[in-house]
Amino acid sequence: RKGNAIITGASSGLGLATAKALAETGKWNVIMACRNFLKAEKAAKAAGIAKENYTVMHLDLASLESVHQFVDTFRRSGMPLDVLVCNAAVYLPTAKEPTFTAEGFELSVGTNHLGHFLLSRLLLDELKKTEYPQKRLIIVGSITGNTNTLAGNVPPKANLGDLRGLAGGLNGLGSSSMIDGGDFDGAKAYKDSKVCNMLTMQEFHRRYHEETGITFASLYPGCIAETGLFREHVPLFRILFPPFQKYITKGYVSEEEAGKRLAQVVSDPSLSKSGVYWSWNKSSSSFENQLSKEASDEEKARKLWEVSEKLVGLA
Ligand code: NDP
């Protein structure tokens, strides 16, 4: 049978390119888990993904209720789950004030981390059940949360501190809307959320890899300067960013190439090692990359896991 892979945020950018790359092999049914059903259907058609290779299911990660509903719908479909890709994200670099999810969490961390945290915890049982030989849970990371790289040192830097804002509910009411308890900064909130993504992947690996055989992985696919991620940025930034990445930092990668990279992490038998943060060198070969000190801090990963469990109602 074909493999079943859920990809969140598959209605544009990296998620869509990955859905296309997997569907084209004819070996995958891609479940596009998207907040805008019509946009996802249109995107799949426009990308030329054949009908028999994808299914769109509604998922809004900015609502825990919607995450529960998605999981119910998926279970009722009777499809086995072989791979889950947590890809969706929002980036709000110019926001002056925080905005919030349905449950009142700051939107970037609420969507990128907490929504995905609940989703992957609820779907872990489905992954455990499948007979598929290579079951994987992939959480898309980023270099921007990685302070051991040049790009990761562009201010404002990611820093989760002692998680006091997160522990306080991240709601901007009684507590701060930032994980470290500081003042709201949209660019930093995104980077913090990506550090959470990478810490979560490693904590999953430590807790569940041996027992379940599931491969847990994260990756930095390269700088995909033309995706919708930068839609909230100022116009001049959006004009200058792609050539800057192409010619100055040389970190630029097309959506198509980035999609092929993530598709490798989904299905390539040689990328089956668990607990790895994959990156690609200039000749597009994958290698196991190092994470920054904070993004590989085991104690912080454990604490993040426990605080997140409380916030999403699992503990
Ligand atoms: P896009 O903005 O193109 O894609 C993000 C996707 O997330 C969209 O499909 C969007 O849906 C979806 N999304 C946003 N909010 C929600 C929500 N509440 N519920 C469900 N889906 C949601 O950006 P990219 O393709 O660039 O980003 C994909 C991943 O790649 C992210 O994890 C990002 O951090 C990572 N990444 C990107 C890099 C880059 O240079 N672009 C570099 C490194 C990592 P909709 O279509 O409805 O807006």
Automatic annotation (TrEMBL):
GO terms for cellular component: chloroplast. The keyword Transit peptide applies. Keywords: Chlorophyll biosynthesis, Chloroplast, NADP, Oxidoreductase, Photosynthesis, Plastid, Transit peptide. Pathway: Porphyrin-containing compound metabolism; chlorophyll biosynthesis. It catalyses: chlorophyllide a + NADP(+) = protochlorophyllide a + NADPH + H(+). Transmembrane segments: none annotated. The keyword Oxidoreductase applies. GO terms for biological process: chlorophyll biosynthetic process; photosynthesis. One of its GO terms (molecular function) is protochlorophyllide reductase activity. Its EC number is 1.3.1.33. Its main location: plastid. It is found in: Plastid, Chloroplast. Phototransformation of protochlorophyllide (Pchlide) to chlorophyllide (Chlide). Belongs to the short-chain dehydrogenases/reductases (SDR) family. POR subfamily. This is NADPH-protochlorophyllide oxidoreductase. The chain holds residues 82 to 396 of 396 of the full protein.
